[in-house]
Amino acid sequence: MSAARYELLQTNLRTGEVVARLPATGISYTETLNQAGAATFGIPLNAPQADPSKLVAGGSGLVVVRDSEPVWGGILWSLAADLAAGTLSLGASGYHSHYKGRHFVDGFDGEEWDIADLLRAWLYRLNAVNTDLSALTPTGRTRTRRWSKDELKNVADAITEMSDNIGGFNFRYESFWADRGKVVGNRFKISDRSGSATMHYLTHRVDCDIRSVTYDSTPLATAAYAVGADNGAGEKLVGIATNSELAQRIPTKQMVATYSDVKETENLLLKAQATVNAGRAPVAIPTLNLYPGARPQDYLPGDVCTVTADSGYVSLNSEFILTERKTDVDTTGRETIGLALANRELFSNAIPS
C-alpha cells in the first residue's frame, strides 16, 4: 500500500484562499472533540515560503491536505526558528481558538432560543475567519443566555459551556474545499452528545494496538453543587443534585463548581445533575494506535467506537466516544494515527463545564 500524499497549505485567514504550499518536513495534527485541537509543523528556515512578511503568527491559516482532501485546518499562533538546525517550527490551533479572542462586547440577551439559533447568532456576529454555518439546523432544544456588556463573555467558552450540559451537543470544525485547490473553508458542525453511530470495531492486536487504559475516579460524585451569580440580595444561586445509589456504595464525595455568569437556577440544576450523572462510575480512557491502512478522516471526534481487549486487568468490550485523533507524519511519509476515547456513558449523561 502506497503512503498517503500530504501537503501543508498556508491560507488567508479571512477568506480561506490558498496563499502558498509550504515544504513541510514534519506534520503532526490533533483534532479534539469540543476543543480547538493543535498542530505542529516543520519547514526549512531558508525556504522561499518562510517569508516573515507573509507567514505571520496570529494572521495566517494552515491547512493539512491528505490525498488531495483537507483533513485539518487552523490558525498559526507561534513560530520557533532553530538557526543551528536550519528549521522553522510552526505551532497552530484549530479555528475554535479564534473565538477564544472574541467577546460579547455589546452583551447578549436571548430567551428560549433554539440551540442552533444561539450558535448561529454568536458565530455570525463574531466570525472573522469565514466559518461556514450551513450545517446548523434546528435542534428542538431551547436555552436562555444573558450576558451584560461589562461581563465580556468569551464566545468559545459560551459555546463549550452550552455543549457540555444535559441535552447538549458535540461540536467540531470541518475543513473542506470551498473552491477545489484554491479556497479552503471551515464548517461548524454539531452532533448528538451521546455520539455518532459508526461501524468502528477496534480489537486489540487485530486492527489496533491499545497502548494504555487509565481508570479515573475524579468525576465520582454522590452530590454536586453548582454555584451561580449573585441573586441581588448578596447570596449566590445554587443548584444541587444527589446520587443516593452511589452514596450507598462509596464514602460521601461532593463536587462544587462555580458558574459566576449563570443567572438562572434552572441552568444550575442542569449543571449539578450533569455532574452527578457523569460521576456515576470511574472513567475508562483507552488510547490506541490504528494499524496501517486506516484513514484519519474516517475516525472523527464524536464517533462511537466499540473497543475490545482482554489482557489481565484490562477487559473491554464496550462502546466509547472518540475524543481525540492525533496523526503524525514523519520525513519519510510514514503515518501514525492515534486515538483517545472515553466511555460512552460519560457523554450520554453530559459533563458540565
Characterization of this structure:
By secondary structure, the protein is mainly beta. The protein has helices at residues 115-125, 155-163, 244-247, 265-278, 344-349; strands at 6-12, 18-22, 26-32, 38-44, 60-66, 69-82, 87-94, 108-114, 131-132, 142-147, 169-179, 183-192, 196-203, 208-216, 223-230, 236-242, 254-258, 283-290, 303-311, 314-329, 335-343. Strands 1, 2, 3, 4, 5, 6, 7, 13, 14, 18, 19, 20 and 21 form a 13-stranded mixed β-sheet that branches. Strands 9-12-11 form a 3-stranded mixed β-sheet, with no helix packed on it. Strands 16-15-17 form a 3-stranded mixed β-sheet. The radius of gyration is 22 Å and the shape is globular. The model has no long low-confidence stretch (mean pLDDT 93).
List keywords for this structure.
single chain; mainly beta; 21 strands; globular; 5 helices; 353 residues; 13-stranded mixed β-sheet
Concise account of the structure shown:
The chain is mainly beta.
Topology:
Elements: E1 6-12, E2 18-22, E3 26-32, E4 38-44, E5 60-66, E6 69-82, E7 87-94, E8 108-114, H1 115-125, E9 131-132, E10 142-147, H2 155-163, E11 169-179, E12 183-192, E13 196-203, E14 208-216, E15 223-230, E16 236-242, H3 244-247, E17 254-258, H4 265-278, E18 283-290, E19 303-311, E20 314-329, E21 335-343, H5 344-349
Parallel strand pairs: 9-12, 13-19, 15-17
Antiparallel strand pairs: 1-2, 1-5, 3-4, 3-20, 4-7, 5-6, 6-7, 8-10, 11-12, 14-18, 15-16, 18-21, 19-20, 20-21
